[in-house]
Design goal:
By secondary structure, the chain is of the alpha/beta class. The protein has a single domain, classed as Rossmann fold, CATH 3.40.50. It is built from ten helices and ten strands. A six-stranded mixed beta sheet has the order 6-7-8-3-9-10, sandwiched between helices. Strands 2-1-4-5 form a four-stranded antiparallel beta sheet, covered by helices on one side.
């Protein structure tokens, strides 16, 4: 379902600020895979997601989603294959529009728009049922402006919007990092429920080692633009944070020094 083949990316080549962000990475995901990605600052995690989404062009290599080579497709054309949730709860929604209007926009993404009433009674009923799954009371606030919601409510809504049209691939870029621990757990639990219910292929960047081990069926760890650890299945379930750190040191030849990640253990 997803193939990243020998992808390289260098920012500001030939200058004093040259940064090799991805060094010929290769990654294959099957349908239903839920992969957590962890690594220090500058490891290449967000760059990899941005390359998949088409934010930056690749220097070389290719990206294939569901059998379609999207390497040269612009970001807006790749949107039909992808759902994405960002770290900032303020991103991904229209704050001055109502909850039901945001959901309607998500439901109509990539479809032909006609001159007819914006939201039908049938759609409104469907949205209420969808929002009940979040267990945040939003089903009774369909006409509330999204900008008035809390960070956790907004991030949960963004997650629902990103998965409304059943994307081929869901990209989660530290989508719980800006939330308090209790709210982050709630949003992560909702994430697992939605992904499992829809069997969505998912790539989730996180700075929390415990979450990276617990969530999903596969874990990759990145360092200096390369994938240095890749564990899955039963091996991942039995993994401890200490074992993960030892695996990183053995594969990369250096100690893991990211304060953000180490403090979240």
């Amino acid at each position: 379902m997803l193939d990243i083949i020998n992808v390289e990316k260098t920012f500001n080549p030939g200058t004093i600020n040259e940064k090799k962000a991805l060094c010929g990475i290769n990654l294959h995901l099957d349908e239903g895979d839920f992969v957590t990605v962890i690594g220090g600052n500058g490891a290449g995690k967000s760059t990899m997601l941005n390359m998949i989404a088409g934010v930056y062009p690749v220097d070389c290599g290719s990206i294939v989603i569901d059998g379609t080579d999207v390497t040269r497709l612009p970001e807006f054309k790749r949107a039909r294959y992808l759902g994405r949730v960002f770290q900032d709860p303020m991103t991904g929604t229209a704050p001055d529009m109502q909850i039901e209007e945001n959901l309607a926009l998500a439901a109509r993404r990539g479809k032909c728009r006609l001159l007819r009433p914006g939201i039908t009674a049938k759609e409104r009923k469907e949205y209420k049922e969808l929002l009940k799954v979040l267990d945040l009371g939003l089903e009774d606030r369909l006409t509330a402006k999204v900008g008035l919601l809390s960070g956790g409510q907004r991030q949960a809504l963004t997650l629902l919007m990103a998965t409304l049209s059943k994307p081929k691939l869901l990209l989660l870029d530290e989508h719980t990092a800006a939330l308090d621990p209790k709210t982050a757990k709630k949003v992560l639990d909702i994430t697992e429920e939605i992904v499992a219910k829809n069997n969505l292929m998912t790539v989730m960047i996180t700075h929390n080692m415990a979450d990276a081990i617990r969530v999903g069926n596969r874990l990759i760890m990145m360092h200096e633009g390369q994938i240095v650890v890749d564990v899955r299945g039963e091996e991942k379930k039995q993994l401890t944070i200490e074992q993960l750190l030892r695996m990183f040191e053995a594969s990369s030849g250096s100690q893991f020094t990211s304060d953000k990640v180490m403090l979240s253990k």
